[in-house]
Design brief:
This protein has two helices and four strands.
């Protein structure tokens, strides 16, 4: 499995709805509300053999209320 972090920017007033919809899909390991430029951050494990972009597009990015995302890939270094 590959770990990625995805930050979400939500439409005004939609952060709680987006967070609940993300949680309901049972795909994220951890989900947090954040301060600053982004509203939410999620830790997601992508199954082996899956294309990260396609997996995220079909699994999460279709949710209403998301206006922008930023995906950070992780790499094992230790």
């Amino acid at each position: 499995m590959r770990c990625v972090f995805v930050q979400f920017r939500c439409a005004p007033g939609k952060t709680y709805e987006v967070a609940e919809a993300i949680h309901d899909r049972e795909l994220v390991s951890e989900l947090y509300s954040t301060s600053g430029e982004w509203d939410l951050i999620a830790k997601i494990y992508i199954p082996d053999g899956e294309d990260v972009g396609q997996f995220l597009n079909r699994s999460l990015f279709d949710l209403p209320g998301i206006t922008r995302t930023l995906t950070t890939m992780t790499f094992r270094t230790f």
